[in-house]
Every structure is written in C-alpha cells, then in structure tokens.
Design goal:
- The complex is a heterodimer of chains A (237) and B (302).
- Chain A has 237 residues and is mainly alpha-helical.
- Chain A has one domain (19-236).
- Chain A is built from eight helices and no strands.
- Chain A has helices at residues 3-16, 20-25, 29-70, 76-85, 91-107, 116-135, 139-171, 176-236.
- Among the domains of chain B are: 60-157 and 171-183, no CATH class; 204-301, Fusion Protein Consisting Of Minor Coat Protein, Glycine Rich Linker, Tola, And A His Tag, Chain: A, Domain 2, CATH 3.30.1150.10.
- Chain B has helices spanning 7-27, 48-52, 123-157, 167-170, 204-217, 257-273, 284-287; strands at 73-74, 86-87, 177-178, 182-183, 232-237, 249-250, 289-295, 299-301.
- In chain B, the strands form three sheets. In chain B, strands 6-5-7-8 form a four-stranded antiparallel sheet.
- The termini of chain B are far apart.
- Classes of the chains: A mainly alpha (237), B alpha/beta (302).
C-alpha cells in the first residue's frame, strides 16, 4: 500500500474516533453494559465512602462528648435522662440500654439482684452488636467492588479485543487503524474497572479498621460500666 | 437498603463523577500524533546476479528501449558517467589549479563551437561528418594552443598581482562539459541502466589465467593443523596496465602465525604477479576493483 494512502486513512480516524464519548458509543452493547455497571459501582462506592466518613466522624465526636460527660461526676440518673431524650447512638445507646434494664429491675420492686448482672451484660452486648452492625453496613459492597471490579473490567476488555480481532479478520488488514479503536475501547473498560476498584479497596481497608477501633472502644466502655453496676448491685444487695 | 440517609453522600459522589467525566471528555479527546510527513522513497530489490549484471544505460530511459549504452562516437568503448552535461571535444578543463590558468576562451565563446548534435540514424554520414569536424577542431585547437602559449608568455611577463575583487572573474562559470561517449556501434538512445553498469562478465579464461598465476606464486605454509585458518580474502585495485594501483586490502580477519603467514604470502604473490596482462583492457571496468579469495582448498576464487 502506498504510504501516503495509509497516512491519509489513519489520520482522520485518530483525530475523531478516539474521544471518550465515541469510544463508549462505538463499543459492543455488552461492553457498554460493563462500562455503565462499573460507572454505577463507582458512584455507589463513593457515596458509601462519603456516608461512612461522615458517620464515623459523627460517632467519634458523640462518643468523645459522652465519655466526657460520663466521667465528669454527673449523676447517672441525669445522664440517663438527657441521653434517652434524643436518639441515643453508639456508646450512649449502650449506656441507655443498660440503665433501662437497671431501672426496670428496681421499678418492679422484686429486689432480686441474682440475675440482674447477667441481664445487663446481655442487653449491652445486644446493643453493641446492633451499633457495630450499623457502622459496618454496606462495607461489603466496597469489598465486592474492590475485588470484582477489575475482573468485570477485564471481561469488557477481553470482549472488546475479541471484536477488534474480528474486525481484523473482516478487513484482512492488520494496520494500526483497524486494530486501534477496538483495543482502545477494550482498555477503556479495564480503566473504568480499576477506577471503581482502587478507591473501593482503599476505603474498605480504612473503614474496617475504623469499625474495629470503634468496637473495641464500645467494648471497653461496656466492661467498665458493667463493673460499676456490679459494684452498685453488691452494695445494695 | 435505606437510601434517604445516604442522600448527601450519593449526591456528592454523583456530582463528582459527572464533573470528572465531563473533564475526561474534554481532555481525553485524541490528538493526532504529530509525525513528520516524509516522502516515500522508491526501492527496488534486486538479486546479486542482477546487481552484477546491471546494464549500461541511463537511469531515466524507457524500459522498452534496447539495453544498450549511449554511444555518440565510434571508438574504443568508453562510456560517460553523466549524460546530462553538454558534449565537448576537449577534455574537461579544471579551473583554479596551481598551474597558470588555461587560456581564457573569451575570444572564442564555446557556444560558437559546433556542438555534437545527436547523430542522425545513418552511420556512415555521421562518421564522415564527425571526422571532418574533428579535423576542423584539431586545426582550431592547434591555433588556439599557439595563441594560448603566446598569451601565457605575455601573462608571465606581466607580474601577476593579487586582487581579491577579481576572484569572481576567476571562477569557472562554464556549464559542465564532458567528452562524447564512445562505443563500437552508434546508439543515439540509451537503454535503461546505470552509467557504471557492467553487464558483461569477466571471461572465465581470464580469471583462470589470473588464478593460475597467483596459485603459482602463493606458497602458504604446508601441513598445518587447521588449513581453514589460511583462507585470505583480499581486495585489490588495478590500473589499466594490469598493475596494482593501490595497496591490497585484506578483508578477512584472523589470528595466529598460520593466518599471518598465509596473508603475507598472498600479498607478496599479488605484488610479484603483476602486471596481470591476461586481463583484457576492454573489460577494465570489471577488474579494476576485485576481490580475490586465497583458499588452500581450491586455491583461488576470483
């Protein structure tokens, strides 16, 4: 083939056909679905990440202020009244649950402290589990996108390369102009997969460690509070 | 899945993605690679045989023409290198040499000289005309030479003065000239080929004679363990008289006393063997620059 002809046939292709939009539009429908799915996954991942970020910030702040109030020497009755007024979160929720159980035992006037200690601990455990579940909800989505995103993108790539090979076979021509659009489109799918997966993995690791930290803090508080209550029970009994 | 509590996160995330996508659409628009446009160069692939049998002719001749060199005069075959220059009867005069400048052709402008026109088809008439012309030329030349001698004497008498402003006058402003190409047969239209082509091959008998001469003179060390070490390839340039016109160039490389002895012996054989007058001067173009292989197995290959 005349080199001049080749140059002329290649130039318009590179100038017009490789923009991001046209890459998407000329892709096979399956690749399009993959791309859109990964795009949606990316949006969802970032939404979850932002939501979790705000949630953890709020929880940490609430726990800090509650701990300060708890150790300030304030009467537990007053603390209970203020905490149970609003929607108690995390540490406050554990405290409210334990206090409610304590008060209920005293209000019934049975004066039997035998099972009170175990009951309070059970109630605190349940509340803690619920709070931790709230913290780590949707983190599995991040893990899934982080591990499966590259594979989904790779699937789109393999499909795109298959079509580009078909176009080579159809045109019986291996010039770059024939191969390039298919390969570029295929690699675009992998790129989107990685764009979705990399933040998902990073956020997942960060939030899992954050959840563990919060859970430990809650557990520590529950143990301390249960020790205080146990002392109270022994003094009264 | 409770979406309302994630409204902020979702909104921020979607907006950020939309912005990134828009930015990508603009910045990832493909720019064509700026490659310099070079003109295509036509390349012909020819075999070794075709190369060694390049026919004499001119590069721009039509392919259908009979493959013959351009011949404008019947004489001993001597092709010209550049067919584009004008034909002149005189050998080319080189300007700006150390010798005194040649007689200025001011009185006798070259345009006035009857130039060799492409000869008409009839051979005899041309030959006669050419002879006549030649005679006339010779007379003119003799006259011009006499005049030139007188001029030169006069010039020598006058002291030459260096005048930088007249350098321009000394520059050779003539159009390039050449001698008429000669051959055994007149051929006004050149066939396709190159000016230095050499289609005829060295005759086998000439080569054999040369080999025989060199074989007599080459005495490589006998009875060595590795006779293949003694293979020596030498490139020589020969003058028209059949003598070496330059030092032989050893092309093969080797090491060790055996190779060195064989090499030195081969060079000595080449010097002692000259002149190689078994090579006919008619095919001088073929043997003016040849490679010879001194091989103890079949002694020589030209």
């Amino acid at each position: 083939m005349n080199p001049g002809d080749v140059a002329q046939s290649v130039l318009p292709l590179t100038s017009s056909d490789l923009s991001l939009l046209s890459l998407f539009l000329q892709a096979h429908w399956l690749v399009k679905v993959v791309m859109l799915g990964l795009m949606g996954a990316s949006v969802w991942v970032w939404a979850i990440a932002l939501d979790k970020f705000f949630l953890f910030m709020r929880t940490r702040k609430a726990n800090d202020s509650f701990e300060q109030a708890f150790w300030s020497g304030q009467s537990l009755e007053d603390l209970y009244r203020t905490a149970s007024a609003g929607q108690a979160q995390s540490m406050a929720a554990v405290f409210v649950a334990a206090m409610r159980e304590w008060k209920r035992s005293f209000e019934t006037q049975t004066r039997s402290f035998a099972g009170l200690q175990t009951r309070i601990e059970k109630v605190m455990d349940v509340t803690m589990a619920r709070e931790i579940e709230r913290l780590e909800r949707r983190l599995l989505v991040l893990a899934t996108v982080g591990s499966a995103g590259p594979f989904v993108g790779l699937f789109g790539t393999v499909w795109g390369i298959m079509t580009s090979f078909q176009s080579i076979a159809a045109s019986k021509n291996t010039s770059l102009a024939v191969v390039a659009p298919g390969i570029a489109e295929a690699l675009f799918a992998t790129a989107i997969g990685l764009i979705a997966a990399i933040p998902a993995t990073i956020f997942y690791n960060k939030f899992v460690s954050e959840v563990n930290k919060q859970a430990q803090r809650l557990e520590g508080f529950a143990d301390e509070f249960s020790a205080i209550l146990s002392r109270q029970i022994d003094e009264r009994g | 899945m409770k979406l309302p509590e994630m409204k902020t996160g979702l909104a921020i995330s979607a907006t950020a993605h939309a912005v990134l996508l828009a930015w990508g659409l603009i910045s990832f628009a493909a720019r064509p690679l700026e490659a310099k446009h070079t003109d295509a160069m036509p390349v012909d692939i020819i075999s070794d045989t075709q190369f060694s049998q390049l026919t004499k002719g001119s590069k721009n001749a039509p392919k259908e023409a009979p493959l013959k060199p351009l011949v404008e005069k019947v004489a001993e075959p001597k092709p010209v290198e550049d067919t584009a220059a004008k034909i002149s009867e005189k050998p080319e005069i080189k300007a700006a040499s150390a010798e005194p400048p040649p007689p200025a052709p001011a009185e006798k402008p070259p345009e006035a000289k009857p130039e060799n026109k492409p000869p008409p088809p009839k051979v005899d008439a041309i030959a006669e005309a050419l002879k006549k012309e030649e005679a006339q030329k010779k007379r003119e030349q003799a006259r011009a030479e006499a005049k030139a001698k007188a001029d030169a004497k006069k010039q020598q008498e006058q002291q030459p003065k260096f005048d930088p402003s007249q350098i321009a006058a000394l520059l050779d402003k003539r159009a390039p000239q050449r001698l008429a190409s000669t051959g055994n047969e007149l051929n006004p239209t050149a066939g396709l080929g190159v000016p230095t082509g050499s289609a005829p091959k060295l005759s086998q008998s000439e080569l054999e004679a040369m080999r025989a001469r060199l074989m007599q003179l080459w005495n490589p060390p006998a009875g060595v363990a590795n006779p293949q070490e003694m293979i020596v390839k030498i490139r020589i340039t020969l003058g028209r008289d059949g003598k070496l016109s330059g030092p032989p160039m050893v092309l093969s490389s080797g090491r060790g006393p055996v190779f060195e002895a064989a090499r030195d012996n081969a060079i000595r054989a080449l010097f002692r063997g000259q002149p190689f007058n078994m090579l006919s001067p008619a095919t001088y173009d073929l043997w003016k620059d040849i490679e010879i292989t001194f091989d103890p197995r079949d002694m020589f290959r030209g």
